[in-house]
Amino acid sequence: MGSFDGVWFVRVLVGILVMSSSLAGTPLAPSRPGLQALKVGERGRLVCRASEFGARGDGKEYDTRAIQASIDYCAEQGGGVVHISPGVYLTGTVFLKSNITLWVDEGATILGSTRQEDFPAQWTRWYTILAEDAENVELTGGGIVAGQGLKFVEEFKAEKNVMVSWNETGDCVGDECRPRLVGFVNCKNVHIWNVFLEEPAYWCLHIVNSDTVSVHDVSIHGDFNSPNTDGIDIVSSNNTVIKDCHIDTGDDAICPKTMLGPLYNLTVTNCWIRTKSCAVKVGSQTNYNLENLHFEQLTIVDSHRGLGIQLRDRGNINNVTYANIQMSTCYYHPSWWGLAEPIYVTACPRTPDTVIGSINNIHYINITTTSENGIFLSGLEESFLKGLHFSNVNVTLERWTNFTGGYHDYRPGCQGLVVHRMSGLFMEYVDDVWMHKVILRWKGSNGMSDWGLPFDITPSTVHDMHLLDYENTYVS
Ligand SMILES: *[C@@H]1O[C@H](CO)[C@@H](O)[C@H](O)[C@H]1NC(C)=O
Ligand SMILES: *[C@@H]1O[C@H](CO)[C@@H](O)[C@H](O)[C@H]1NC(C)=O
Ligand SMILES: *[C@@H]1O[C@H](CO)[C@@H](O)[C@H](O)[C@H]1NC(C)=O
Ligand SMILES: *[C@@H]1O[C@H](CO)[C@@H](O)[C@H](O)[C@H]1NC(C)=O
Ligand SMILES: *[C@@H]1O[C@H](CO)[C@@H](O)[C@H](O)[C@H]1NC(C)=O
Ligand SMILES: *[C@@H]1O[C@H](CO)[C@@H](O)[C@H](O)[C@H]1NC(C)=O
Ligand SMILES: *[C@@H]1O[C@H](CO)[C@@H](O)[C@H](O)[C@H]1NC(C)=O
Ligand SMILES: *[C@@H]1O[C@H](CO)[C@@H](O)[C@H](O)[C@H]1NC(C)=O
């Protein structure tokens, strides 16, 4: 877990001390499950142990009912800590409630079912752990929540796995038909910390229409070759803080978007990311505004795209800052969106009928990247990208994979993949662009002939461009 191991350890230790003192003296051999589980902890919180409600943790028999019973009981009493002790707990969807801390102990794994019948009827509620309309909910304890994603692979392929689809009902189609791992929908005051989220079958952590959500010291690990294994999707939620996380997965790692309402105030700090898709992706669902997004102190490794914005709908994206970021981006199979661009901004309508929103005030500060492709900024005649500020941005262009490039990637939709020469900085339909201390260093071309074009600017679509300190240089 990198540099925050120590802090985490202390937190876990404190957590364990609090838990064990509150659990001490719990009566054994419950004849009436539920009542025996009662114990008021030192922090004044009730502790309900799933084991006392019949959870076995043998990884074979389903513990869904027992875990749910312990949550329901705890919630009926006004809330408390639901304790999952070491073991493997196979479950269908488990519903969290208000004022509940789900404490998955170190050594405990909540293992998501791979059978559709263990999930609710509506596909939108397919999660292993789901909190709906809840407040003051917490997921922590140092343990694991795992989705058995590899069991959803129909065909393993190095470029991209083919996944199972639960589309029998016709509610969802193809790739979108698998359960997510953990979801918070219409929630308030959510705290997710000190937990490992592993092998999601589809999106991993989903925060929807919620307010005041804190995610920290969370490790997410998804299969690198499985599509839609997103890390954290933040949908139409306000005041989300994500920090000290480690995300290594196949699809987009951190992905704010809007489908249900606007999204305000998202801060992401000190995260390590590797993905076969986009590390930080704003969009592409952008039906409402996204404002005040701040990404700082990120390390992005060997990802297919670094900092991406995909505006495809009617919302506006305004005031986004990326600061103090180090990355490397490279090519993977073109069936994955992305062409190794460290920075990528596109506005284009999802369908010919879409009225497109706008992108304004985007800041890139103190960024250093080694990338196989250049920066790509593409607006539209009816939606110029406006107010793009680059300050202290160093791009080393280097080829180390065998892909020959030569494409522009407008996906999803729009012009799709377009054959086009590679460049250090591509711009079309942009207005008010500032480049202050921007350095492009061209390093190894790996035999690529089409190499070294510093700018590719579509004439007459670039307005008000300021190159205050821009350097283009060849290095050996
Ligand atoms: C949760 O706890 C708070 C504070 O103790 C209380 O006001 C609220 O009613 C509780 N909510 C539920 C649904 O029990
Ligand atoms: C379900 O998805 C699979 C794979 O994407 C597809 O071949 C099949 O036609 C779909 N079935 C239904 C009922 O949509
Ligand atoms: C987020 O804030 C906006 C603006 O105040 C509000 O319209 C929206 O309902 C809020 N969303 C949530 C999930 O609280
Ligand atoms: C966004 O954050 C600012 C500053 O903390 C706060 O004043 C504002 O109410 C927040 N917006 C929403 C929609 O919660
Ligand atoms: C832009 O967003 C940041 C948070 O990321 C906030 O502190 C700042 O006030 C916002 N600026 C404007 C003009 O709203
Ligand atoms: C970019 O390179 C210059 C010159 O080597 C260096 O002074 C600066 O600190 C670098 N900036 C970043 C963000 O790495
Ligand atoms: C960018 O780096 C400079 C020099 O290290 C530092 O003074 C400045 O605070 C950084 N900017 C941001 C927004 O962190
Ligand atoms: C590039 O191709 C060569 C020759 O086929 C192969 O040896 C090498 O491993 C490939 N490199 C990468 C990064 O795929």
Automatic annotation (TrEMBL):
One of its GO terms (molecular function) is polygalacturonase activity. GO terms for biological process: carbohydrate metabolic process. The chain crosses the membrane at residues 6-29. Signal peptide: none annotated. It comes from the Eukaryota. The keyword Transmembrane applies. SUPFAM superfamilies: Pectin lyase-like (SSF51126). The keyword Membrane applies. It holds the Pfam family Glyco_hydro_28. Belongs to the glycosyl hydrolase 28 family. This is Uncharacterized protein.
